[in-house]
Design goal:
Elements (H helix, E strand, L loop, with lengths): L2 H7 L6 H12 L1 H6 L2 H8 L3 H10 L5 H10 L17 H15 L2 H13 L3 E5 L4 H13 L4 E3 L5 H4 L8 E5 L7 H8 L8 E6 L12 E4 L15 H20 L1
Helix pairs in contact: 2-5, 7-12, 8-12, 9-12
């Protein structure tokens, strides 16, 4: 079943609440493949029961079944995206994906990030779950480059905020979920001279904390690029960190 065609075929019979869920899926499909029903409900202020009924209307047992179908959907012919050539090799999409991440690192973005990193007193990194991997890796690479870098373990932000100030830079890796809710609650209570410069590395423009960060970096996903294979989202954040660390290393060696 092509899930996108199936959703569109029910448009005329959706209830107002089902239509709301339908529009949310079309506007932000990545969040629906990367979040739980509870997270979706909290982010968009809809009920989990409404999400469940929408999924059941399409013939799924629940949200988990619906989300899996979205992830495995081979193609999206109704979003106006261009279709890729008939190539199904994983390596083809992986190479193209890395190329798209590379395009994200524009000269102006690279220059700004390098300037902030090299002028920072300390570089902090943090990520929850899968996003903790690129956070730890980037911190490690910065230390190898001779810079003061510290990875903040999940849920231990309070301890580190006692010493952080506006001379520091924090890289927060967060795919799409409000994992750093407690962190931003603590940051909001700090005086201006204690607030670090926050760089949020995500996959969606409307991340729950996009407006609270000083700089939002949005990386492409397999879905936004209309790939016919599913790529682990960690690849994007890790490769972004590799590119940035290599640029910093190159800059320091000049």
């Amino acid at each position: 079943m092509n899930i996108w065609k199936e959703m569109d075929s029910h448009v005329d019979s959706y209830t107002p609440k089902e239509m709301q869920i339908y529009n949310l899926v079309k506007q932000d499909p990545y969040s629906f493949t990367a979040s739980t029903a509870m997270e979706i409900a909290s982010r968009y202020h809809v009920s989990q029961s409404a999400i469940s009924r929408f999924c059941q209307r399409l013939g799924f047992t629940g949200f988990s079944d619906f989300r899996l179908s979205m992830m495995m959907s081979a193609n999206d012919t109704n979003t106006g995206k261009k279709n890729h050539p008939e190539k199904h090799e994983y390596i083809y999409y992986l190479q193209d994906y890395l190329s798209q991440i590379n395009k994200t690192m524009t000269p102006s973005l690279s220059e700004d990030l390098i300037k902030r990193i090299l002028s920072a007193r300390n570089i902090y990194t943090s990520g929850y779950g899968a996003s903790s991997i690129p956070a730890q890796w980037f911190s490690f690479r910065m230390v190898l480059s001779g810079l003061s870098a510290i990875n903040i373990p999940s849920s231990q932000e309070m301890e580190y905020l006692h010493t952080i100030n506006h001379h520091d830079v924090i890289f927060l890796y967060s795919a799409s979920n409000p994992s750093h809710k407690d962190f931003f609650s603590l940051i909001d209570g700090l005086p201006i001279n204690r607030r670090p410069y926050i760089i949020l590395v995500s996959y969606i423009k409307n991340h729950p904390f996009a407006k609270k960060a000083d700089h939002l970096i949005v990386l492409p996903t397999w879905h936004s690029l209309d790939y016919q294979v599913v790529l682990d989202t960690n690849i994007g954040q890790i490769y972004f960190s590799i590119l940035l660390s290599e640029k910093i290393t190159s800059h320091l060696s000049e």
